[in-house]
Amino acid sequence: MRGAWLIVGFALMLGATGWAADVSPAERGRRALLERSFLPATIPVQAYQNAWKQWGGELREAPQPYAEAFMQRYGLHPAPYPNNGYPMGLREGRTLFGTRALATDCMLCHGGSILGQSYVGLGNVTLDIQAFYEELAAAAGLKWKTPFRFCNVRGTSEAGAFSVYLLGLREPDLTLAKKRNDFGLCDTLCEDVPAWWLLKKKRTMYHTGGADARSVRSLMQFMLSPLNPAETFAKEEATFADIRAFLLSLEPPKYPFPIDQTLARQGEVVYRQHCARCHGTYGPDGEYPNKIVPLEVIGTDRTRYDGISHEFGRFYNRSWFAKEKPGWFVDDYAARWSPGYQAPPLDGIWATAPYFHNGSVPTLEHVLNSKTRPKIFTRSYRTGREDYDPVRVGWRYQELPHGPDPSAPAIERRKVYDTTQPGRGNGGHTFGDELSDAERRAVIEYLKTL
Ligand code: HEC
Ligand code: HEC
Question: How far is Cα of residue 295 from the mean position of the Cα atoms in its chain?
Fold first, then answer.
């Protein structure tokens, strides 16, 4: 009997430590990403519970069910993994003093949903990260103004500005700087979040292809809270190598509605003639050319391209982030000059509307017919069946005759995508304009199969 207990005890111990030998790096990465927090928890649990008091209107008590109302307000999605009732992006953790509080994580931006189904690695295209931080701070009783705009339009964020601002608080060795380095911060980049399942095809990453896709340290920029000391980065590097392995294991969801296979095969022929040289080919012998297309050729909004300065790039390259593999004849994964924007792989493209690096175009039909793109529009900022357009493939939207009423609350104004505003231009990428309507329909049908 005693022996049996010893065996059980030993088995439990192995379970608890996750016996390294039979756990793959991707599985370790999955656990680290979904079970741990890489930022100290700073949001009091009460701030979450009381956030509704910031929502204005006639509310006298918390709307029910509260978790649902909270997700709707900020554009968050149910976690498809155990998360104690919190949405993706928010998790329980510990403050620097060891007390319980909430922290944000990668899935705030990289956890999305489509047709009512949540996915880790699908970009969150409904998030209002400005309202999220402002109102949680106010609910915690803090008078805090975000040091720059966290987002200008719902569903996009100023992730690049976060890096520029936060790295500016550090020395190259990541100790805190005495004075903030000003790299010319631009907070109208209006960035859409790339799907993580594309990373495995890429040699360079981020919208401009400005970073080596092998870089683990580059992903750690998202840990740059001033509360994380320099040592934490070195300590967590191996964990982030596992997280990267997990990202490489992700696959896109399949298009869930019927596909006209004959039309799709016709579309593939058109696709190969007009699109494959930049976006690659698919199927067993598929090849991804990793093309970065010069601005003059692509012609999409250039704010994201210009908005992250060379000065920042030079500082980044002197910093710990770019010193991943130092030594002779070894590529250091430095930030590199880019001529424009990277043509992304189109796997799972049906699920990742709105399109382009700034999310300025609501459907594939509009990507392929630049003259019809809506100039000012809004959408439900929900992701259910009724919000999805399977014909044009993307989000249903409502075109508006003018921009938002300046007297409307900011959270409402951010629901309007006005392509005349900085960072939000919807021009360029006119490669579909030369197609006939029938060819365009066929290409869209083909894109559903990817
Ligand atoms: C505030 C929102 C936000 C958070 C939080 C965030 N990301 Fe991102 N991430 C983005 C945006 C936006 C981009 C595209 C940036 C660009 O190129 O302009 C991006 C790009 C990436 C890419 C490159 C994808 C590609 O194909 O080019 C990876 C990988 C990535 N993030 C990983 C992470 C990890 C890991 C975390 C957590 C440690 C994280 N991100 C946290 C918004 C976010
Ligand atoms: C000369 C190269 C080039 C050609 C040809 C080209 N594209 Fe693109 N495409 C790009 C680049 C670069 C982007 C990214 C632009 C941006 O985000 O600003 C892009 C973006 C897209 C997007 C949006 C991706 C996303 O995730 O937001 C889709 C969809 C797309 N292209 C489909 C097509 C189709 C279909 C064709 C053929 C009719 C085509 N492209 C032809 C370079 C090209």
Answer: 23
